[in-house]
Amino acid sequence: MVAKPPGFGDNELRNAMASLSDFERMLPALSRGEKAQLLKWVVQDLDEGFPGIDSRPDVCGGEPCLVRTRIPVWLLEQARRLGTSEQALLAAYPHLRAEDLVNAWAYARSHAGEIESQIRDNETA
């Protein structure tokens, strides 16, 4: 069962599912370039979603943190810049997984300006 998006009634959900089925039937007819463009649009639509990273006003002042923790991404990125290895980070934070660091590095790359600003702000605090 597909979750109903907010604001969707039953009829709208049925129409969306019919459209999705139509799209699935059309997919084989699309060229590689058209499929790539569709994928690009989907990725752009999901751009703000980073698995394993959460930003909530009630946790660390809204700074992006690893889920299940209060460890901000900027802290891990700063440690990495200062030469701390991934093995050392995992040893220092035993509840972290290698996957958490991969997610943090991806977020830091994608939001370089934001992370840089948070590092600067916390260095001067």
Features:
125 residues, mainly alpha, 2 domains, two-stranded antiparallel ribbon, 6 helices, 58% helix, 3% strand
Summarize this, please?
The protein folds into two domains: 10-45; 53-124, Arc Repressor Mutant, subunit A (Orthogonal Bundle). 58% of the residues lie in helices and 3% in strands.
Describe the structure.
A two-stranded antiparallel ribbon has the order 1-2. The chain folds into two domains: 10-45; 53-124, Arc Repressor Mutant, subunit A, CATH 1.10.10. It is built from six helices and two strands, in the order ααββαααα. By secondary structure, the chain is mainly alpha-helical. The termini are far apart. The model has no long low-confidence stretch (mean pLDDT 84).
Please specify the SSE layout and strand pairing.
Blueprint: H1 10-26, H2 32-45, E1 53-54, E2 65-66, H3 73-81, H4 86-92, H5 98-110, H6 112-124
Antiparallel strand pairs: 1-2
